[in-house]
């Protein structure tokens, strides 16, 4: 796949053009300055193809799925199931029915935490998470543990933001019923050794959930190779629409777990005496789903496929390397999270300036970054900081934008200190 | 000077700053020159917690008027807090309760008062009004 025109070209090409040209939202000016969008870990912008697919959906397909005998309903059902197949292929699931549509990563974790809590947690049991989890991979487990008298235990990390694998092994006792951890940290950028984490858990027959919300858009993810039992991610962080996400679960696990929500589509027969649940994947898809989101997610997958995940990964790693190198020019800047393997995001603090102040000034210079705790308050407590400024990259970002960011950051620091 | 006259003065002061960054630079520069709140009042009792930055607000009643001093750990918040304090400090509880703060919108800083900004400013404004309400009830 053609990626760079030459070594010095910093923009990826798509259909023969610099890729950012395919993203209408990136063509705007804010406060009279060209928009530089570095908040991709929160959500990515959408390519024209996805925006068009949404219009097409409502213009030509809109109908409820799985129930109607009429033409449009069948068209919608087909399109919905085509995306499921494409997702299954994208993550290399063994079966398409192991792919469940959810509202997003948070919804997926809540589903597993709730269902697994009912199925496999008892008094004195524990759930193991890591020190760098997003609140969405902490709170649902706290709720599940509280209901069952179980405990939440945490795999510690070092100052660089890397998991302490020795400590992890020590924590893996027979009380641990499930391990749930992030593939890539949203606030530190750390890429965790999930394959090794899974291998060690499986030696003790403990299932593992992988939060891949910050992974699937950056690198090739293969659920069979990783051998994870569950994986969750969101459509809107991978160039797709908001409100749609994926839960992958191994067939044996999805069959064992009780349903999360009851309603239409998840049943075979209903009487007032009892209900027979539907087969996978429908058992976990109660009610009318986000049909438009699921169907148009296919365009986002096509986009990723056409650009090529290898190209995306190479381009984004180069941006990360370049930004890290350039940030070392400013003595007041300290990068938070210096793991050996990182993807997607750089968090930093500036000595003598509050992240909020820098964020506001950068915004006025046309640069969108995120400041705060990034829904990982325990990580901020670990480093004893109120928050960080985070820049996170996507396929359309360029080195020129990083240069612009650097000039703006220097000006902001000059104003503030 | 009335509260509204103070607001109009601030609107005039900001009028010539058309560039956004200049506007914020002005807020920051003035915040840097500010006297800090008395350290003894920088305690949880006077803390208004935002999601990203903290604001401390201390009220004092003297001769029927409420005087405020305030601070923040973020300098832009501190500057904005100061603007609000400048306008509302030194008036009677009823004047503060009835005040309509139109200057924030007019100088283009309304976004900082939206609930999603989570910088504690909106809560601070509510707190000021609550102090005014409380002192007013005490008086009665």
From TrEMBL, chain A:
InterPro entries: Aminotrans_V_dom, Aminotrans_V_PyrdxlP_BS, Cys_dSase_SufS, Cysteine_dSase, PyrdxlP-dep_Trfase, PyrdxlP-dep_Trfase_major, PyrdxlP-dep_Trfase_small
Broad class of enzyme this protein falls into: transferase
A Pfam family the protein falls into: Aminotran_5
One BP annotation, GO: cysteine metabolic process
UniProt keyword list: Lyase, Pyridoxal phosphate, Transferase
Domain of life assignment: Bacteria
MF terms in GO: cysteine desulfurase activity; lyase activity; pyridoxal phosphate binding
CC cofactor: pyridoxal 5'-phosphate
Record field: catalytic activity: (sulfur carrier)-H + L-cysteine = (sulfur carrier)-SH + L-alanine
Positions of the Aminotransferase class V domain: 36-405
Entry-linked SUPFAM superfamilies: PLP-dependent transferases
Known EC number: 2.8.1.7
Role of this protein: Catalyzes the removal of elemental sulfur and selenium atoms from L-cysteine, L-cystine, L-selenocysteine, and L-selenocystine to produce L-alanine.
Protein family per UniProt: Belongs to the class-V pyridoxal-phosphate-dependent aminotransferase family. Csd subfamily.
NCBIfam families: sufS (TIGR01979)
Protein name (record): Cysteine desulfurase
Source organism of this protein record: Arcticibacter pallidicorallinus
Automatic annotation (TrEMBL), chain B:
Pfam families the UniProt entry points to: SufE
Domain Fe-S metabolism associated: 12-130
Entry coiled-coil feature ranges: none
Top-level taxonomic group: Bacteria
Matching PANTHER family: SUFE-LIKE PROTEIN 2, CHLOROPLASTIC, SULFUR ACCEPTOR PROTEIN CSDE
Family according to the record: Belongs to the SufE family.
Protein name: Cysteine desulfuration protein SufE
Source taxonomy: Bacteria, Pseudomonadati, Bacteroidota, Sphingobacteriia, Sphingobacteriales
């Amino acid at each position: 796949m053609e990626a760079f025109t030459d070594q010095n070209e910093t923009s990826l090409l798509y259909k023969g053009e610099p890729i950012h040209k395919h993203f209408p939202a990136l063509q705007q000016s804010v406060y009279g300055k060209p928009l530089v969008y570095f908040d991709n870990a929160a959500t990515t912008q959408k390519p024209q193809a996805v925006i068009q697919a949404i219009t097409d959906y409502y213009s030509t397909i809109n109908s409820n799925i799985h129930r109607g005998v009429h033409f449009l309903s069948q068209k919608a059902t087909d399109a919905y199931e085509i995306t499921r197949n494409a997702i299954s292929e994208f993550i290399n699931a063994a079966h398409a029915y192991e792919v469940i549509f959810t509202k997003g990563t948070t919804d997926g974790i809540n589903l597993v935490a709730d269902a697994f809590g009912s199925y496999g947690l008892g008094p004195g049991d524990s759930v193991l998470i890591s020190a760098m989890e997003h609140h969405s991979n902490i709170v649902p487990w706290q709720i599940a543990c509280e209901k069952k008298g179980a405990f939440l235990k945490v795999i510690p990390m070092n100052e660089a933001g890397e998991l302490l694998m020795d400590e992890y092994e020590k924590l893996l006792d027979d009380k641990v019923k499930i391990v749930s951890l992030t593939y890539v940290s949203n606030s530190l950028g750390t890429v965790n050794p999930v394959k090794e984490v899974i291998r060690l858990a499986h030696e003790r027959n403990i299932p593992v959930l992988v939060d891949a919300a910050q992974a699937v858009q950056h690198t090739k993810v293969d659920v069979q190779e990783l051998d994870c039992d569950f994986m969750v991610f969101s459509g809107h962080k991978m160039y797709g629409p908001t409100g749609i996400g994926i839960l992958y679960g191994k067939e044996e696990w999805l069959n064992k777990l009780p349903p999360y929500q009851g309603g239409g589509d998840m049943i075979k027969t209903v009487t007032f005496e009892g209900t027979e649940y539907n087969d996978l994947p429908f058992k976990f898809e109660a009610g009318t789903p986000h049909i438009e989101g699921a169907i148009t997610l296919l365009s986002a997958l096509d986009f990723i496929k056409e650009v090529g995940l290898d190209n995306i990964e190479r381009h984004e790693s180069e941006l990360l390397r370049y930004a890290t190198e350039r940030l070392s020019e400013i003595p007041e800047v300290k990068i938070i999270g210096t793991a050996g393997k990182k993807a997607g995001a750089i968090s930093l603090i500036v000595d003598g300036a509050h992240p909020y102040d820098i964020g506001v000034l950068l915004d006025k210079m046309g640069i969108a970054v995120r400041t705060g705790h990034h829904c990982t308050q325990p990580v901020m407590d670990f480093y004893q900081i109120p928050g960080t400024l985070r820049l996170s990259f996507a396929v359309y970002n360029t080195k020129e934008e990083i240069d612009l960011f650097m000039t703006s950051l220097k000006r902001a620091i000059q104003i503030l200190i | 000077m009335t509260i509204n006259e103070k607001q109009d003065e601030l609107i005039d002061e900001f009028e010539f700053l058309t560039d956004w960054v200049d506007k914020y630079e002005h807020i920051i520069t003035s915040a840097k020159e500010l006297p800090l709140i008395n350290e003894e009042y920088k305690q949880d009792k006077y803390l208004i917690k935002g999601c990203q930055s903290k604001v401390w607000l201390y009220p004092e009643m003297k001769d029927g008027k409420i005087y405020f001093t305030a601070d923040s750990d973020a300098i832009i918040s501190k500057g904005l807090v100061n603007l609000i304090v400048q306008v509302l400090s030194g008036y009677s509880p009823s004047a503060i309760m009835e005040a309509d703060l139109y200057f924030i919108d007019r100088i283009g800083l309304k976004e900082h008062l939206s609930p999603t900004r989570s910088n504690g400013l909106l809560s601070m404004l509510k707190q000021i009004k609550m102090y005014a309400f409380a002192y007013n009830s005490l008086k009665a």
